[in-house]
Amino acid sequence: MISKILKKKKGLKRNIEPQIKELQFALGRIRKSPLSVIGLCIILVFVGIALLAPFICPPQHPHEPYRIPRYGYSMTPSPPSWEHPFGRTEGQYDIFYGVIWGTRTAFRIGFIVVGSILVIGIVAGSVSGYYGGIIDEIVMRIVDTFMSLPTLILAMALVTALGRNMDNVMLALIVVGWPAYARLMRGNILSVREQTYVEAARATGISDFGIIFKHVLPNAIYPLLIMASLDIGAMVLIAAALSFLGLGAPVGYADWGQMISFARNWIVGPPGNPLAYWYAVTIPGLFIVLFVLGWNLLGDAFRDILDPKIRRK
């Protein structure tokens, strides 16, 4: 009995050791890159803000937590005060509440949109690249059609047709984002499917589904994961642009792009005091810049960790 337990422990240790080494390698690569550490710290700060949003800014409307409190109807922004530390923007919406709950909106957009286009791109690219032939032609012509249209223009057209709300914004971003992932995945599959181990697996009678998910996909997915980590910030940026243009979140919704939209008429103050309303545009803009910067720096760290060439070195 004791010998069986010892054998199980040894087997468990052998199975865990590769994962431990992988984790040690990843942490080592992050520690060696100061910019990666900075990016990770920025993202962790935003994660903390998103998690603590109900405690930092308790919602006045429990059933509508993303609805920004309004304290009047004056069109002139109000300066920071004790009650409103970041001031109030046009229409007297609280900037502090908007940027804090806007952090949750940013994570929601980034994770849902990038996660969805990652799944669609993996499935479409894998099927297209592995089977080829008429399937490849059909999928790639659809991809070419979408990629021939400007991303922002297509997203604007879709949101205009579907209606103005965040769900439709995310749907539009998914529609315009998946073709690039499918094309990249197809290229990776084409290079991997000709490898010797794939031919050997095919010769042993393994199904196409098993070959794709056990042998092809694990060796072709890393570039997509790197791309996804970089695109989280990019998708938030596009969503903010749509909100700024009046095609994103509805009026009063906690979204960084809309907060800047409220300040579009007050970027420059009156003559003699051009920075009178600096807080209205600078604070939401700073949140966007730091969020996107954090994901870009973290994406570089993922590239260093997942790139096979760097791993061999």
How would you characterize this protein structure?
By secondary structure, the protein is an all-alpha fold. Helices cover 72% and strands 0% of the residues. It contains 13 helices and no strands. It has helices at residues 2-32, 34-51, 53-56, 95-131, 133-147, 151-162, 166-192, 196-203, 208-216, 222-244, 256-262, 278-306, 308-312. It is elongated, with a radius of gyration of 24 Å. The chain starts with a helix and ends with a helix. 36% of the residues are buried.
> What class do helices, strands and sheet pairing give?
mainly alpha
Shape designation: elongated
Number of helices: 13
- List low-confidence stretches: 4-9, 11-15
Secondary-structure element order, as H and E?
HHHHHHHHHHHHH
The whole-number mean of residue pLDDT values reads 84
Instruction: Give the fraction of residues assigned to helices.
Output: over 70%
Rounded Rg = 24 Å
First-last Cα distance: 44 Å
The biggest beta sheet is recorded as:
none
**What is the number of strand segments?**
0
Classify the beta-strand content into a percent band: under 5%
